[in-house]
Write a structure and sequence with these properties.
This protein is α/β, with parallel strands linked by helices and 415 residues long. The chain has ten helices and 16 strands.
């Protein structure tokens, strides 16, 4: 065993034991946070509750309006960041929990669990000899735009705190309970929106030859979209375009409308497919519209890029999860989106999914369901996933630094 691995193994044992002491208080905090959810853009009270829970351990600096950042451990040199999301959803809770929210918002995506887990992790780290800095990122607006992660990256927060890697963990009912799924490469898709507006010439349904019918054009565009995907993207790389809105006309049976609109989401998993697929959709829509004597304006509203996990971190975290006694699971990949992807684009980073259950519910509610309520044991499971992530990222940084030192020494001897 290398000196680095020996040191980290000793740290893992001490930190894990300290976590056992912190989890009960973190569960109580989870209940408080769950019962007082704040929607995107209004997360200031949540930030302050977390800051209060970490008083004496971390002092948070406000960032990007409702967010916060703090660092403990060595004040100089590389640091490992762990992220928690602050926002809740505008969902009326139906979980029936005694600590359920009653303000028309809900932590229906488990962010309250993530928040409490980060608090437990940081409190357990107090007094330990951390080899690298631990940066806590309290991120607003994960559930809505503008993305809090993108604003944190653009504000230079990662550079200012010398963040080498960012670690995230998200609860998920699709993973075996208490197991943790990591995995290298694609985890979540890029999520863009496409708007197609078709302009024609309205008219009377009895005289279609005197109009430029937008309904015929928009219908053909809609049914052609799957074929465009098939002809543009390799079937080995998942991609999908789903139409959420198709509108034309105002309710009359005998009026041909002059305008029609498609509003769709485009999900791609390989960054090289993102622009070509949009270009192909635009070309098809313009040509089909022209064939029906109409015009099409096609625009893309850019969303999150694909979430790509760093391969070395994914391999390392699996080893540390095993050392901590945490079960691993097959990678959890989906065409869902998470703005954690902006961190992955900035520095090599890692997102994990932690399996959870909602007690006494069958079938299990999904994320964003008003009945979704992970059991309290999820707090400890997420905290240990974050701990494994910190250890894997630290091992990678120290290994790279050791390798550089060896090369420098060899160059000096050779000179």
């Amino acid at each position: 065993m290398t000196p680095t691995l020996t040191r980290l193994t000793e740290l893992a044992g001490s930190w894990n034991t300290a976590l056992d002491r912190e989890i009960p208080a973190a569960i109580q905090l989870r209940h408080v946070l769950h019962g007082a959810p704040c929607v995107s853009g209004a997360e200031h009270p949540t930030r302050e509750r977390i800051a209060k829970a970490l008083r004496g351990v971390m002092r948070f600096e406000p960032i990007v309006d409702a967010g916060g950042v703090s660092r403990i451990g060595p004040s100089e040199g590389p640091a490992i960041a762990v992220r928690t999301e602050l926002d809740a959803l505008p969902v009326t809770e139906l979980s029936g929990a005694p600590f359920a929210a009653t303000n028309g918002a809900m932590h229906a995506c488990g962010h309250d669990v993530h928040q409490a887990a980060l608090v437990a992790l940081a409190r357990a780290a107090a007094g330990l000899d951390l080899p690298l800095g631990l940066v806590a990122l309290l991120q607003p607006r994960e559930e809505s735009y503008p993305s809090g992660a993108l604003e944190i990256v653009n504000a230079g927060v990662l550079e200012r705190f010398d963040v080498a890697h960012v670690i995230g963990a998200h609860v998920h009912p699709g993973v075996r309970n208490a197991a943790v799924a990591s995995g290298a490469g694609f985890i979540n898709s890029a999520a863009d929106e496409i708007e197609i507006q078709v302009h024609g010439r309205g008219g009377h349904a009895a005289y279609p030859h005197e109009a430029a019918d937008t309904i015929a054009a928009i219908a053909q565009i809609a049914v052609a979209i799957p074929e465009v995907i098939r002809r543009t993207v390799s079937p080995l790389r998942p991609a999908i375009i789903s139409i959420g809105t198709l509108t034309a006309g105002e309710g009359a049976a005998n009026v041909l409308p002059a305008e029609a609109r498609i509003y769709a989401t485009m999900r791609t998993t390989d960054p090289t497919d993102r622009q070509p697929l949009f270009d192909a959709i635009r070309d098809m829509a313009e040509r089909v519209a022209a064939a029906y004597g109409t015009d099409a304006d096609v625009t893309r509203i850019e969303g999150e890029p694909a979430l790509i996990n760093d391969a070395a971190l994914a391999t390392g975290v699996d080893d540390w999860l095993a050392r901590l006694g945490v079960d691993g699971a097959e990678p959890m990949r989906s065409l869902g989106a998470d703005d954690f992807s902006y961190y992955c684009a900035a520095v090599p980073s890692l997102m994990m999914f932690v399996g959870v259950e909602t007690l006494d519910r069958s079938p299990q509610p999904s994320l964003h369901d008003p009945r979704f309520l992970p059991d309290d044991s999820a707090v400890g499971a997420v905290a240990r996933a974050l701990l494994a992530g910190y250890l894997a990222a630290t091992e990678r940084v120290l290994s790279v630094e050791h390798h550089r030192s060896d090369l420098t020494a060899r160059d000096h001897v050779g000179a």
